[in-house]
Amino acid sequence: MSAEMKAIVDAIEGQGSQRDFEGLTIPKTMRAITTHRDEVEMFEGLASADKDPRKSLHLDEVPVPEVGANEALVGIMASSINFNSVWTSIFEPIPTFKFLERAAKRDPINKSHDLPYHIIGSDGSGVVLRTGPGVTQFKPGDRVTLHCNYVDMQSPDGHNDSMLDPDQRIWGFETNFGGFAEIALVRANQLMPKPPHLTWEEAASMPLVNSTSYRMLVSQNGWQIKQGDNVLIWGAVGGLGGFALQYALNAGAFPIAVVSSEEKEQLCRTIGARWVINRKKEGYRFLNADGSHDYKEMLRFGKQIREMTGGEDVDVVFEHPGRHTFGASVFVAKPGGTIVTCASTTGYMHEYDNRYLWMHKKRIIGSHFANYREAWEANRLVCKRAIHPLLSQTFPLEQAAEATLLVHKNQALGKIGVLGLAPEEGLGVLDEEGRARHIGQINVYRNAVAGDFRLVKDQP
Ligand code: NAP
What we know:
Layout: H1 3-13, H2 18-22, E1 29-36, H3 53-56, E2 58-63, E3 71-80, H4 83-89, H5 97-106, E4 117-119, E5 124-131, E6 143-146, E7 149-150, E8 169-170, E9 183-187, E10 191-193, H6 200-204, H7 207-217, E11 230-234, H8 239-250, E12 254-259, H9 262-271, E13 275-278, H10 279-282, H11 295-309, E14 314-319, H12 326-332, E15 333-341, H13 354-358, E16 363-366, H14 372-383, E17 391-395, H15 400-408, E18 415-419, H16 432-437, H17 439-442, H18 444-449
Helix pairs in contact: 4-15, 7-8, 7-14, 11-12
Bound molecules: NADP nicotinamide-adenine-dinucleotide phosphate.
The site of NADP nicotinamide-adenine-dinucleotide phosphate has 30 residues, from helix 4, helix 7, helix 8 and strand 12.
């Protein structure tokens, strides 16, 4: 680590003032995890499952980007693996360099992002090091988390909901200079206050999936959950699902949590789910080998749900596995029910029987990340200690590829953190008292990984 980078870490750990941070020299280079443009064809002919992120993700020394108007340079203490880290590393559905090229063609200002390497990562926690002209809400020295809605709001189309802006992109996926680095470049409207009771890696494990789940289930752009709703949650202790489960429980709704192992089953119960389905143990397969639907399986799934709920069907389905589950999701939603979808992990060409949709007046809502207001509200709930991190493990930056492989293989519980400048795990907590009140929930995943599923109740 260079002397300049070390001075940044010292200032962060010493809780330096705005002046201290303004006086720091920004290093010329930094360590970052990248993909390389000249390698995008390296996995040609391989099945998705056989594409290995350890081959395509590199730890490089790269130049630190320049900060521009309405932007900030952030010293990244930690980031986290998201499924888009997997997509980027296996160059699917398209190499992310295409996004960088398109953006550069649209506006020359984006040319600085269109490089032979792509610094990935769509989550981050850290400290603001520099702000460009026009930044009014945050200043050097502020401790922040970063959400990944990258939008400058020049089009009228985005002014009711910035996710509708034609130039809306996901930072660290459709832009360069993401969170798997020692320093990241963000727009000022990606900055949010870091929850003071959390460590750097816990804070960094939340923005992307927490905000996405908030929009899908809570926001007026999604389902607007209410008490009593039956909520079917696929992957209920995965990245997204772990937050969906908490939103459902917080709302007084009844989650039906679907997972694939006994360990995850028990974890759902520990978090508070009454109804849990282990899809592996039950052997559910909704698609036949030829791609047609197995209606007997859907009926069996619906019957199991009714047995749990006392004969009720599902008000809303929290959908993201896609092709393998979507037909069943449409089937089990109650008349007038809704399927909210944000992804297609198992394939984006979905088939469902439209009779079940139109005859029963069901609805499908497409959802994508979150606007600044939604991300802010989701972060606020974390700051208020009403939503908790679900972090199972944390890796050093140089092992980001190994961590990405775990998510690719569906071997992760909740979220996996990646350290940036933070020299070790467990740092960054300013509100020790608030943390102590919620330590049971904060540690629930770590305890679970260690085989202890007791959820310690909050102190009043
Ligand atoms: P994750 O942490 O890997 O969790 C996904 C969960 O899905 C897994 O835990 C797994 O749970 C479940 N799953 C996997 N295959 C399944 C199958 N065949 N049938 C049923 N369930 C299955 O990933 P994530 O972060 O939650 O993201 C999930 C998807 O959403 C990814 O495709 C990601 O790219 C996308 N996403 C989209 C947005 C957006 O803004 N549009 C935001 C975040 C994520 P079990 O094995 O326990 O059932």
